[in-house]
């Protein structure tokens, strides 16, 4: 298990160098969106319309932060369960999205799409939301403000901590980590 | 009769919402410390340390422990000698939720219709479980319930012939399938008996018991012990990255049931295990 620093936007080479269990520290802009924002993006694709953001080389963080106290860019900002975004993820990966950050297992289709389109799935520590928020330097709503906590955001992060769960070769830390300690 | 002002209830509920979301309970911190000593995986120890650090940042900076500040679930014990003046109990509680979630910078996570999915904007309505008890006190307990762990919960109508083994197998299957999703280390509430909805209620209410407590009935305490041991042998570990510490506690409660039935419910709770109570 290695430690790697990642700066967005990401290239194929950046993500191909990662292995499951690696700790990464992410710096740069990341997209933030969850259930409703994903549904709207997919509805736009279905209608043949352009997306409000460019996904190429991007990372998307599955999260709906709590409201910011005055003077802070964001409230608490931990990951939500990624499995709910499984039906949407492969289409976004096909458009050049290089990675997703969340928590919990992904479907076989998402893991396959990570292999096919050279992308990774990372986990942030679920429930460590106040700690994670320390790495958020700025946050702005870029689309769907009416969705409140589910709006699509762009966050500037510095050394945002995450762990590689699914790499570009189809490996899964949740499967391998568990097998190692199963009695 | 003793009178309690509705606005007193609202104020107390507002404080409960904020306190439950900012301050990790001591019993959870104690469980983290004790599991760190037993944990075989260095990654797992690191995760538990991050959760301790998160609790410290939340307390000092007045931030919610988790961005998912939950569905506001209340267990209310209303003394039969109490009357509420200046409003109704549900209105007073919902107003407390409205104020607490707004003033405490807590996330509003409730949609008014499960299919249309429009946010209510103030985290109401609360879920209120009301029980009338003897006396002149009003006890209000909040258990803000996050979506990730609640989604991993289940009710199953077993057959009486399935017995204790059937219940144990069901709980293990549910926890195994949940894997990393509900933010382990988890707390597992198990409700056995009652009707379809009572089993789920009993499982949720079991989560309010102290983590170190045992069910006073030996046959139920034995199930708790067996389940905790087997769950912690699954290898899921903190966050599902692999390790020994998958569950902090298994709390089993039972209720009388029909001669034809053996309902069982598993209510999974994340490691923040937020709950606070007040007696008025």
What is the terminal-to-terminal distance of chain A?
A: 23 Å
Work out the strand percent of chain B: 15-25%
* Average pLDDT reading of chain A: 96
Count of DSSP-assigned helices of chain B: 8
CATH topology of chain A: fumarase
Kindly report the greatest chain-chain contact and the residue count on each side. Answer: A-B, 45 and 48 residues
Sketch the major β-sheet of chain B. Answer: 4 strands, mixed
Number of strands of chain B: 10
Could you say which structural class the secondary elements and strand pairing of chain B correspond to?
alpha/beta
Report the sheet-strand fraction of chain A. Answer: 25-35%
- Under CATH at level 1, the class of chain A stands as Alpha Beta
**Alpha carbon gyration radius of chain B:** 19 Å
Helix percentage of chain A? 25-40%
Shape of chain B: globular
Order of SSEs of chain B, N→C?
EHHHEEHEEHEHEHHEEE
Distance between the termini of chain B: 14 Å
Count the DSSP helices of chain A.
Answer: 6
Q: Mind telling me the C-alpha Rg of chain A? A: 15 Å
What distinguishing features does this structure have?
heterodimer; A: 183 residues; alpha/beta; fumarase; five-stranded mixed beta barrel; 6 helices; 7 strands; 27% strand; globular; B: 280 residues; 2 domains; four-stranded mixed sheet; 8 helices; 39% helix
């Amino acid at each position: 298990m290695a430690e790697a620093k990642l700066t967005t936007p990401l290239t194929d080479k950046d993500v191909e160098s990662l292995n499951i269990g690696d700790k990464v520290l992410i710096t740069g802009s990341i997209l933030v969106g969850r259930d409703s924002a994903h549904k709207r993006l997919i509805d736009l694709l279905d209608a043949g319309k352009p997306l409000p953001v460019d996904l190429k080389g991007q990372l998307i963080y599955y999260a709906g932060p709590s409201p910011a106290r005055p003077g802070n860019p964001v409230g608490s900002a931990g990951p939500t369960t990624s499995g709910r975004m499984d039906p949407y993820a492969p289409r976004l990966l096909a458009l050049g999205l290089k990675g997703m950050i969340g928590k919990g297992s992904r479907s076989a289709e998402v893991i396959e799409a990570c292999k096919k389109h050279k992308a990774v799935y990372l986990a942030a520590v679920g429930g460590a939301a106040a700690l994670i928020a320390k790495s958020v330097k700025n946050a702005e709503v870029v689309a769907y403000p009416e969705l409140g906590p589910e709006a699509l955001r762009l966050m500037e992060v510095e050394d945002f901590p995450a762990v590689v769960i699914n790499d570009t070769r189809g490996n899964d830390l949740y499967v391998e980590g568990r097998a190692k300690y199963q009695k | 009769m003793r009178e309690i002002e509705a606005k007193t209830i609202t104020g107390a509920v507002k404080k409960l919402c904020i306190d439950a979301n900012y301050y990790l309970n001591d019993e959870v911190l104690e469980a983290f410390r004790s599991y760190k000593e037993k944990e075989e995986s260095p990654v797992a120890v690191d995760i538990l340390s991050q959760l301790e650090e998160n609790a410290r940042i939340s307390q000092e900076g007045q931030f919610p422990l988790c961005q998912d500040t939950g569905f506001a679930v209340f267990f209310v014990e209303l003394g039969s000698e109490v009357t509420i003046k200046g409003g109704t109990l549900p209105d007073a509680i919902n107003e407390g939720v409205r104020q607490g979630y707004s003033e405490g910078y807590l996330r509003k996570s409730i949609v008014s219709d499960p299919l249309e999915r429009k946010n209510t904007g103030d985290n109401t309505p609360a879920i209120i479980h009301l029980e009338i008890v003897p006396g002149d006190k009003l006890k209000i307990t909040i258990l803000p319930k996050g979506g990730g762990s609640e989604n991993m919960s289940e009710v199953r109508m077993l057959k009486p012939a399935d017995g204790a083994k059937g219940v144990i197998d069901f709980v293990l299957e549910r926890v195994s399938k949940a894997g990393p999703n509900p933010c382990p280390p988890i707390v597992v509430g198990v409700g056995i008996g009652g009707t379809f909805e009572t089993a789920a209620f009993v499982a949720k209410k079991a989560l309010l018991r102290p983590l170190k407590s045992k069910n006073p009935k030996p046959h139920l305490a034995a199930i708790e012990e067996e389940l905790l041991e087997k769950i912690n042998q699954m290898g899921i570990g903190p966050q599902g990255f692999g390790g020994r510490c998958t569950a902090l506690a298994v709390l089993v409660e039972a209720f009388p049931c029909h001669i034809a039935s053996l309902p069982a419910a598993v209510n999974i709770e994340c490691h923040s295990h937020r709950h606070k109570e007040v007696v008025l």
